[in-house]
Amino acid sequence: MYRSEEDLTLLTELAGVLDQTVTDAGLSSGTYLVLRHLTRAPGPTQVTRLAEELGADPTEVAELAGRLTEDGFVEVSAGRIQSTAGGAARVDEIEAAANEAMRAYVLERPHTATVYGLVAAMQAGRFTVEDLLEFLAEGPTDT
Questions:
Q1: How confident is the model over 114-126, as a mean pLDDT?
Q2: Could you say which of 36, 83, 84, 142 has the lowest number of CB atoms within 10 Å?
């Protein structure tokens, strides 16, 4: 897929919009990613497995999960962690707010069809935050 420097700049700015939305909701980027991953998991998981899936350090993931437990968004049982209903609701709230904020941000700026299509795909759930980060990491293309 074609990615111009301008597309990547705007998409990087969108990642900043997401970060601000997460911060405004009272979470850090790390706690949000852990909670988001847990809400999509099929059931309880071990911290070490969660860390592997996120490509993160298990100690750091345990600390982030501890903060989420204190907030009531995650529960621990038999050495496994999982999202609570409140945690899932918080992720839904953040994603709804982030989608609206990113949509507004894009509509206020000149953008290419590539960026518009990616934002539409994000809002439809076909393009995730992970996809955005991967897209940014790949850099610009010529075609």
A1: 70
A2: 142
